[in-house]
Structures are given as C-alpha cells and as structure tokens.
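Q: What structure does this chain adopt?
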Amino acid sequence: MRREQSFDHLAEQYDRLGELTDDAVADWLPTVLPERRRRAIDLGCGAGRHAVILADYFDQVDAIDLSGPMIRLARRKRSRPNVSYLESDILDVAGQYDFVTSSATLHHVAEPALVLMHIRTLVAVGGRAALADTVSPRPANPKWWLYGGEVRKLARNLVRRGAGDAWEIFRLSTGEWLDHRASDRYLSRDGFERLYGAAFPGGSFVRVGGQHCVIWDRPEVTGLI
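A:
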C-alpha cells in the first residue's frame, strides 16, 4: 500500500511542526466519541498526537503507522500505559473497535476504496468511525503555489505568534516538507463524499479545520452494514 511518499526522514520535522501549529482535529475528536469506550484505534497515527487524546477516554488505544521512525518517535515522546504503538499497514490490521479514526492519512494509500472497505470491518457493532482527510479543488498543488501560501502564513504568524515561532514554522514548512506536500494527491470535497459515502452509507460529513470528515455509526443490527 506504500506510495513513493514517506515520512521516515521527516518524522522529527513533522512532529515539531505539529507542536507549533493548530490542530482542529485534536479539538474535534473528543466531541464525536461513542458512548462505549473500551477500544479505539488511530490509523496513520504519526507521532501519537491523537492517540494520547484518545487514551484519556478509552481503556485501550491501538495506534498504527506505516513509518517505523514515526512509531519510534511516538513511543519515545507520547508513551501511555493504555496505548500500543504498532508499525503496520492498515490492511494488515484486524479486530473490532468501538472507535476508529484517521486524520490526514488516507490520501497516501494506493487503493483508497479497498482500504475504506477494510476500515469499515474494524468498527464494532454499535461503534463509530470518524475519518478526516485533506481535500482540495485540484488533485495536486504545485510547489510555487504552496510556497506562496507559506509566505502569506508567515506574515500572519509574525503578528499572531511572534518572530521566533513564525520563522520556525516557515522554515519547517518550506523545507523538505514542502516537497512532500507537492507530491500529495487529493480528492475534491465532492470526490471525498462519493468515495467515503460508498464505503460508509448513511455517514454524515463535516468540515474540521482544513480537513473534510465522515462520521459513521455501525448499526446494532449487523445485517445492515
């Protein structure tokens, strides 16, 4: 399932950038949790930012990522007694979870329809999936366009955050991470809703920060999925 893109050499940079920037999904997750909170899984967990949030609400959290350096960073920085960080492909994950989530991950997979159908099998009866990903009006964003956006962001951050944080965010955002973002391929919002709606019929869609999200509850009657 791996594409040419890899976070292996960007783990530290990506995590530091996450520490410096707003994460709307992190604020949103606690508002969409199911009533039953035994087991949760974070697919594409990165350095564990969302896994540690889930750890405050669930008995057990499994956090999965394909990048070994990301998993090692998560274990080092965000270890919790009830969080298991695992290096794994999503398609190799099995089990039943009361809550299945993913953020800014699934645009990296080579066969998204197949992966989404597999993710649906991970949701326990009566459980919930809440999946978020970046969408864009165009499939790819050229590097020059992304750089211009970071220049504009720098101007705002100089006022909002001060010179130190603003320049660090700009440096991290315009280095190797910019090359990575230019290689990303995104769905449009309508494309997202068609693809995710086919895998999660009856799901609801909502915008959270820069991501589009689907929320889907697996029916109590198993024959309805």
